[in-house]
Amino acid sequence: MWWVEPGHLEVKNNQLSVGGHLATDLAGRHGTPLYVYNGDKILKNFRLVRDALARHADNFCIHYAVKANAHVQVLKLLGQEGAHADCVSPIECRLALKAGIGKERILFTGTSVSNRDLAELVDLGVRINIDSLSQLRRLATFSRSPEISIRWNPGEGSGAGLHSHTITAGKYIKFGIPEAKVLDAFREASELGMKVVGLHQHIGSGWLGDDVRVFLGSVRRTLEVAREAERILGRPFRFIDFGGGPGIRYREEQSPFPIEEYARGLVEAVRTAGFSCTLAIEPGRYFVAESGVLLLEINTVEEKNVPVIGVDGGFNTLVRPAFYGAHHEMVLCNRVRGPCERTFMVAGNLCESSDVFNENKKELRPLPEPREGDILAILCAGAYGYEMGSAYNGRPLPAQVLLLGGKDYRITERGNFEAIVGGQALTTK
Ligand SMILES: Cc1ncc(COP(=O)(O)O)c(C=O)c1O
Predict the structure, then answer these.
(1) Tens digits of per-residue pLDDT, 58-71?
(2) Does residue 291 have its Cβ closer than 6 Å to ligand 1?
(3) Ligand 1 lined by 200 (C-beta under 6 Å)
(4) Which pairing describes strands 278-281 and 239-241: parallel, antiparallel, or unpaired?
(5) Residue 424 gets which letter from DSSP?
(6) Closest atom, ligand 1, to C-alpha of 205
(7) Fewest CB atoms within 10 A around its CB: which of 53, 270, 319, 323?
(8) What is the value of pTM for the model shown?
(9) Based on the domain organization, do 136 and 230 belong to the same domain?
(10) Which among 155, 171, 168 has a CA at the least distance from the CA of 220?
(11) Is 161 a pocket residue for ligand 1 (Cβ < 6 Å)?
């Protein structure tokens, strides 16, 4: 069991425990489908990155990418540990503020940002990372007060990520200002009288070993742009933000993310280029993915054309397998170690053929012989899980539980009929 980690995921008497709690007990107490996050594991992963950077740099900050897991309790945990916040919508900014992360610690990086969004962001007083010339010009028409930074796209060969959907640099990418226009953007911002204080890149999400080299290549390109941009502005940047992306181990064959190589390489590149401004990064997945487990109840075990296990959640609960072909380990909570004599399709409860938790419908999963009523755990579900959920098919969002200091806190109630029908007009009169 390569994923066993003392204090986090353990197997005792062939039963899965999470943060010292039996998974089946959590499912019994809170119901399924259920997201469970181990707060200690979130803090552990945050500290790994923070301490690695601190070994090499003295002027850095970590923006937690709120989109990975936007629960206010998760934001509080990380905020109290010193995290700043990377937010992609005004509501994410408001969640970060609610969690006690002050506006001076929030950077908004949106895309296709409307004037309504801009007005709200100006009211909130957060920094705005500019994604397009249009956004820059529209912002300048009604406020020059926010501090801004500019997101650029380091171009072809600079993107990296787990899947083509998570690569965010290159030609056919909607984000940021392309290389050919980025210096003009700084000139224009300066002429418009905007307070430009930073430069930003984010090349993609979920990188592993070799991707760190691609990342460090993009860092060097960003630093070249930064030098030119500072010349245009006539003063040094307050910060350069190198984005998020550090991946985690979703399957046994993958190696753990090389944090030391990443931190050392990044800090050395910035230092060698002669910059002394704040070095910022904004990981999301790395801090929260491993902390989270999705618990599902098995309601059907049947020999169809292939052996099928039916569970009480679907891609509305965790979309990563259906959307990205993503692999997640699955564990039978009360018979973890098997023996595994058969392989199964693990099917969700949505009326969609793509609604299976195997990364590929034809790649059946070896599991111990399941029984109806068993609890199945899907591991590494703490990032881009609940956040990408929906109430499709009238299947409400699940409850969420945070484990902290030996206790389990229900931090989100399960959705229900009222939550779904609540915003609907029940009459047209
Ligand atoms: C601008 C930006 N920053 C940071 C992140 C976080 O990425 P990750 O969770 O892979 O660290 C994302 C993810 O999409 C992003 O778009």
Answers:
(1) 999 999 999 999 99
(2) no
(3) no
(4) parallel
(5) S
(6) 10
(7) 323
(8) 0.96
(9) yes
(10) 155
(11) no
